[in-house]
Amino acid sequence: MHIIWNQYPEIKEELLEIIKLMDENAKCKDKVIEQSIKDLIHANGKMIRPAFTVLAAHFGEYEPEKVRALASVVELFHMATLVHDDVIDDANLRRGVPTIQAKYGKEYAVYIGDYLFCICFKILASTASLQSIQVDSLSMSRICLGEVEQLNSRFNTEVSVKNYLKRIAGKTAELFSLSLYIGAAESGCSDKLTKSFWRIGHHIGMAFQIIDDILDYTGCEKSVGKDHAKDIQEGVFNLPLIYALEKQPKDLLALLEKHPYSDTDLKEIVQLVDTYGGIDRARRLAHQYTQKAYKHINKLPDNEYKMILLEVAHKLLDRAY
Amino acid sequence: MHIIWNQYPEIKEELLEIIKLMDENAKCKDKVIEQSIKDLIHANGKMIRPAFTVLAAHFGEYEPEKVRALASVVELFHMATLVHDDVIDDANLRRGVPTIQAKYGKEYAVYIGDYLFCICFKILASTASLQSIQVDSLSMSRICLGEVEQLNSRFNTEVSVKNYLKRIAGKTAELFSLSLYIGAAESGCSDKLTKSFWRIGHHIGMAFQIIDDILDYTGCEKSVGKDHAKDIQEGVFNLPLIYALEKQPKDLLALLEKHPYSDTDLKEIVQLVDTYGGIDRARRLAHQYTQKAYKHINKLPDNEYKMILLEVAHKLLDRAY
């Protein structure tokens, strides 16, 4: 279990129950499949999304079994998308451990991802209301669309800020929203409160992804656990670069045209993005989303879970970036 | 619309409505995504699975809108698995037209498949009962497992008949069963009748896949629409080969060890499989499943849809193989 939860024993205990439930749902006659899913479950992810479901559910009538099932769905869905992302990105490491595809091959990773999707709906159908399954599947389809949009805009030097925001709203913020929403909705919270959780998830998710993307420019391998400037190499042009491109800088445009980029190219691109103010502007937008998230969390009814949500949001969003 | 339905105008009309519904569900702000899904919908597939749902539903209280939605789900799910199969197989053609991945790349195909999965559950949640969604998701997860099992047994010369049957039960028969089952179950058929449809789907599916696999040995590119002996090249050892291997033939084993196979190797493998009686034995097993399917269909309550089901089964299973 990630250290982030050590100071919230109640949430930590619940997350351990959720891991147990995911392990149970990973059970399969084929032991290789079972083990590869368990490896994912125990890869020490932060479990932010299921924690969000748990926290939001505490604002209504908390039914432990139901909440755990719903929380396991958002985490398993997240895992499914990660497995497929790694296929696309040709990634060998995820959370510091070899990816499914590095261990078992791409083909295997495609089907394991599909299998995880099906498990999600199996759990949902035995737990959630039809309305929640509808919201879930619609939301999940938007997440897939976000991924497709990211693909379609690769190496496009004319990609707009609007397009970028739409893309990350789909691929990241949507699942944060869903995690909070489903916890609240299935625990009988009012429509108003449920919608408010959806917005909080959106703002946290947007800030989180922008920060993550900034770290691609400012981070090093150690602190973010992935290769420096990897997104640029793959043609995924993120906010700092898009802002820099708005100034139509001939040197940067010329560099971007000659992909695949050498290490020197990448360093130079990052340097130019910084020079053209892209990183600073991106930081300001991340800050705006972060502030909006805090504002909306502060408006929630007062209880201990609100404080935890606020603190966790701080931990997620006040990283050095 | 495939010519197979020309002599059943009522079913054909219903299938056209189902295509319309799939088109509606393919609607998407991103027009490239929408078009690529519509290309799949209009690729002139046989629409066997949705037709099965329609036929089975006629044994109960037929609710057109509900049945169409359920039928579109089984076809869209089938498409999702095909899109991902093509990613795995590196296939460029499907039903004679370029595959999604040939047109838009593998990455795109992975996410479009995921998106189709989500659409399936979105439609299900707005149409079916929770119980049917449970059956569906469980069934879909077994289909994915069948695919994984196929991968895990590639190039394994010790693969058993039992393993093969389990694999095709998952990857093919399961969806035939589900298509019939969901039509019957959601139209209020009795448990006994619903189970009977499940079995019919199983037997048709098993016979269908064994025949398809035999065609990999006996067919030519034109008649099956895919490369001759393609499965062998990919290390997917099917029933005729497995039967031949049971005789522990040193010449065949030696050939199988030296993959990738040349065209001459492939011809020789096919020849040896025939010599060792693999094709004949596979034909006999296909025949047994076919007969079981007919027997169970004959036991259904008498009506015009029973006759159509029987005729369609004949068309599917009495191919030259």
TrEMBL record, chains A, B:
User: What domain of life is recorded for the organism?
Assistant: Bacteria
Q: Which GO terms describe its molecular function?
A: metal ion binding; prenyltransferase activity
Family annotation (Gene3D superfamilies): Farnesyl Diphosphate Synthase
Task: Please name the GO terms of the biological process aspect recorded for this protein, alphabetically.
Answer: isoprenoid biosynthetic process
The coenzyme or cofactor needed here is: Mg(2+)
Keyword tags: Magnesium, Metal-binding, Transferase
**Does the keyword field hold Magnesium?**
yes
**Family, as annotated:** Belongs to the FPP/GGPP synthase family.
UniProt protein name = Polyprenyl synthetase family protein
The record lists the organism as Holtiella tumoricola
